[in-house]
Amino acid sequence: MNVYLVIFNIMMLLLLIGVLAYMQKKHISFSKRVFTALGLGIVFGFALQLVYGASSTIIQQSTQWFDIVGTGYVKLLQMIVMPLVFISIVMAFTKLSVTNHLGKIATLIIGLLLGTTAIAASIGIMSALGFQLEAVDIPSGEAEQMRGQELEQKYEQIQTLSFPQKMIELLPANPFLDFTGQRSTSTIAVVIFAAFVGMAYLGVARKQPEQAEMFKKIVDALYAIVMRIVTLVLRLTPYGILAIMSRITATSDVNTIAKLGKFVVASYMALFVMFAVHLIILALAGLNPITYIKKVLPVLSFAFTSRSSAATLPLNIKAQTTALGVPEGVANFAGSFGLSIGQNGCAGIYPAMLAVMIAPTVNIDPTSPSFILTLILVVTISSFGVAGVGGGATFAAILVLSTMNLPVALAGLLISVEPLIDMGRTALNVSGSMTAGIVTSRITKELNVHVYNEETKKLEA
């Protein structure tokens, strides 16, 4: 009987995929298809949970099949991240689009990412204090205790590295290894390697122009191929969002989430406030924040469902360049740096909130100015090298809590709501990197304001 029910659930998902395919055939806009997929996934997922229960065998077996579409789509996006980052940054040098003030662009992007992370940490602290969150109020079960032990083991693995050693880890000792994405800092390492290739090209262009011209043609051809792959994969976005959202809503334990509702509300309040800060920054730069919201919502929706800044990178860069008027070089630097530096949600708000919650357990006053200022500084510095995939927030939390001499294991108390909160954190991370790209382009006077303001210039695939 279970087999037939699983087959029925799969058929229902295929039917919804058919609806989205019909919308694409009728040339309905990409944004509308994305939001339709998001809504259908939520309704379908909750319907499955209502009928079978979140922990039922039927749900587990059905979602394994759903993952062929959802997780498969995320893997395809991850497949093109490294080639896209590398070839786009090299092409920025061959087109001389960023080389006139490369140092200024990199400094501005990193400065904006770190500055917004410091603001995010402050907001996280205020949210935790305002909602009077304390770790002692969170129920601890077997799952939470096991998670705490895992975090302690991870802490033992990374505690041997000093901050200078962590900075050295950003460098690409073996670029071919980093192209496989095996390290948490692989993306930044590829960016650095691409920058070296680009600078080498500039040197060759001055002394051996014929070889440089040949290399430029090769780069142009590779870029065209990579961008075509990006377009092909992005066309699958609505289907991926449908499957991912169906799985998330079908398997979420509503009762457990309700028990930690106060923390969930406090977290999302902080995330929304920080997103408002992004909009204020854009407004101060003389740009319409409402236009920004309209154009980036499909990107943020995918980041929300996939919980992966790295998987969202192709959408992130495409939105910046085609819909927001950011030059390709700046967009690639901002998107790539944003994967491992200054993630506002995962490396800013979340560790700060945890530290405030845990501090009273070791008789530390979380309201003292010295504790707050130290925490903001530690969070900002620790935001270097945070992975842009699931687990980045955990890594950031371990770094912050250990530096502040707070018990790392207590972070495991929130395991039951981690996926729900991580969705909002990832969306904020991506918004932060896009904001850095837009503002940097605005400051360097390279932003195409006409494209930014043009209503018809929206993200399409």
TrEMBL record:
Q: Which residues cross the membrane?
A: 6-22, 34-52, 72-93, 105-131, 185-204, 225-245, 265-287, 371-389, 395-415
The cross-references to SUPFAM superfamilies, in alphabetical order and at most eight, read:
Proton glutamate symport protein (SSF118215)
Write out the annotated subcellular location. Answer: Membrane
Q: Write down the superkingdom of origin.
A: Bacteria
Principal subcellular localisation of the protein? membrane
Q: How does it sit in the membrane?
A: Multi-pass membrane protein
Q: Which UniProt keywords apply?
A: Amino-acid transport, Membrane, Transmembrane, Transmembrane helix, Transport
The record's similarity note reads: Belongs to the dicarboxylate/amino acid:cation symporter (DAACS) (TC 2.A.23) family.
This chain's protein is named: L-cystine uptake protein TcyP
What organism is the protein native to? Geobacillus icigianus
